[in-house]
Design a protein that fits this description.
This protein is mainly alpha-helical. The chain is built from seven helices and no strands. It starts with a helix and ends in a 6-residue tail after the last helix.
């Protein structure tokens, strides 16, 4: 699935290398790896969501384990880029749908419908063009 702090650094590396398409795709994956990470990075308040968290690294509490040095890597230009991406229609739609799915997964029992929801959530994480 990818560790969120690692994915955040990977995003920054792509951004600084000028690979804006790759950086945008990795930022989307980073956002969905932990829905609290990007709001924290750009200074937005994000209460804990009432959703199914598939692992402890997807939960808000995991952010306390990210070394402060990682947050300090981000300069004003990179933070502005993240904010624009995060607030874009595309990211907003994907984030909303991902949250809806994980809200349903809280109570959906094992079976066909749950499997469909999980498959859709994983599909949202894939960058366009990935198989």
């Amino acid at each position: 699935m990818g560790e969120p702090a690692h994915m955040l650094c990977w995003t920054l590396a792509l951004y600084r290398a000028g690979d804006m398409t790759g950086a945008s795709h990795k930022l989307l994956q980073t956002m969905l790896s932990n829905l609290y990470l990007l709001p924290q990075l750009i200074g937005h308040k994000q209460p804990r969501l009432n959703i199914w968290h598939g692992s402890n690294i997807e939960d808000k509490a995991s952010l306390q384990y990210i070394p402060p040095e990682i947050w300090k890597l981000w300069d004003a230009g990179a933070l502005q880029w993240v904010q624009v991406q995060y607030e874009s229609v595309e990211f907003g739609w994907i984030r909303k749908r991902y949250i809806e799915i994980h809200g349903q997964l809280q109570t959906e029992p094992e079976g066909t419908r749950r499997s469909q929801l999980v498959a859709e959530a994983f599909a949202l994480r894939k960058a366009p063009g990935q198989v």
